[in-house]
Each structure stands twice: as C-alpha cells, then as structure tokens.
Known about the structure:
By secondary structure, the chain is of the alpha/beta class. It has one domain (about 5-230): Rossmann fold (3-Layer(aba) Sandwich), CATH 3.40.50.300. It has helices spanning about 40-50, 70-75, 95-105, 110-120, 125, 140-150, 170-185, 220, 225-230, and strands at about 5-10, 15-25, 30-35, 55-60, 65, 80, 155-160, 185-190, 205-210, 210-215. A six-stranded mixed beta sheet has the order 6-7-8-3-9-10, sandwiched between helices. The radius of gyration is 17 Å and the shape is globular. The protein starts with a strand and ends with a helix. It binds adenosine-5'-diphosphate and magnesium ion. Magnesium ion binds near residues 41, 42, 84 and 160.
Amino acid sequence: MMLSVEGLHVYIEASHILRDVSLAVGEREVVCLVGRNGAGKTTTLRTIMGYLAPHAGRIRFLDREIGGMRPFAIAQLGMGFAPEDGAIFADLTVAENVEIATWTRRTGRPAGDRLAQAYAVFPVLRRYGARRGTQISGGERKMLSIARALALDPTMLLLDEPFEGLSPAIIPEIGRGIFEITKLGHAILIAESNIHHVPEYTTRLYVIERGEIIFSGHPSEVQRDPAVLRVIGGTP
Ligand SMILES: Nc1ncnc2c1ncn2[C@@H]1O[C@H](COP(=O)(O)OP(=O)(O)O)[C@@H](O)[C@H]1O
Ligand SMILES: [Mg+2]
C-alpha cells in the first residue's frame, strides 16, 4: 500500500477524537473518507499530514513510518495536501501561490512542467495569475489549493472537502479537475461529507462516525448497508 494507517488514536487536548482508525490507499487509487460534520475527517487528514501527533497507531507512506514527522518533511516525501479552508496565502498572487509548491519540494521534473500541469487541470487560474489569493471566488480558491498541491509533483494527494460550500455551478468544474488528476496516476484520498459528491470512479470508501471507521469497502457495497447509509444520509 502507498499509504496505510493502522490503529490510529488522536487526542485534541483531553478529547479522544480518533479511535482506532485504519485505512489504506494503494497506487493510483481514489479513496473517499465520508462522514458527517464533526466525524473526524479533517483530524484524520491533518494527522496523516503531520499537523497533529498520533497518540497511538502507525502511519506508513511509501514504506516509511511518517507518524510524528513534520508537515514540511511529509510534503517533501510527496504528500500533497489541499486543506478544507484552502490555506491560500493572502499576500501572494494566485501564480505565486502555485509556484511556492515547486520550491517546497524539488523533484527531477522542471518547475515549468509542474506549473503547466497544474494550470492544465484548472485553466482559469492562469487567467487570474496576477490577482491576490483573496481576489478570487470560493470555488477558485478550492482550485488554487488543489493546483498548489499538484504543483508539488506529489505521489499522493489529500483533498479535504473539495466541494464544500460551493455553488452547484462550480462543482462539476472541480470534479472534472479531480478526474484529470486521477488520469495523471496520483493516488488520492478525499474527505467528503456529502455521499453524493463521491466520484463514481472511487475504488474504496470508508465511513467515519464519531472518530471510528464504521464501514470500509467498495462504494457499491455501502448502498446495501441501510445502517451506514442512514449515518451519511444517502438513499439506497
Ligand atoms: N482544535 C480543536 N479543538 C477541540 N476539538 C476539536 C478541534 N478540532 C476538531 N475538534 C473536534 O474533533 C472532532 C472531529 O472534527 P473534524 O476532524 O474537524 O471533523 P470533520 O472534518 O469530519 O467535520 C469534532 O468533534 C470537533 O469538535
Ligand atoms: Mg472537516
């Protein structure tokens, strides 16, 4: 497995937020972690990315134990992260926000190629390159955050609620971009609160509820599990 999380427990101050979370993402896989608000999706992604320290459990990425490593070091190993709020640098332009990833991680690929690929996925960003990171719409900020993660030249991407809070008009645009990224061969782990946003090409689905994984399997299997569907609000 490219990424494997086993028996993860995470506390935030005195609260036991993640309880025995295990999940795996293989090469070229698109995996979705679905759960309602407050279930523990962001905590899971932030722990994988090194922003939170695991209390117990193992996190292996490309055959290395990364639990406890710093976010910058994990990014340098090739883990791209598009956080829930986008984390756009307000004082930088759109173009600078994308370029910064090419300095964060140096790879064998020239920066120009990496930027071209990021803009090919979300062309609107090139048009707005000179704008400040704050002078674009919410949907474009989501795109910028994903494009920046892609410009890292990552092996794997963590996308936290890429469709959240967006107008219905922009959702297909983001979906198309994510699909383009899958064609590049990256493994992707998507956190999603809306089961209806889970892409049809998802290879593996996990459902998290109150910090625990309550389902893992192929998305078609969750359709046959009324108890799990009730939690995530899907219709059988
Ligand atoms: N900084 C924090 N301090 C205290 N509790 C937090 C903090 N961040 C998250 N939590 C709690 O952890 C739980 C999981 O949150 P989160 O991982 O953000 O859920 P999700 O992303 O699935 O909506 C929630 O109950 C939330 O209240
Ligand atoms: Mg979240």
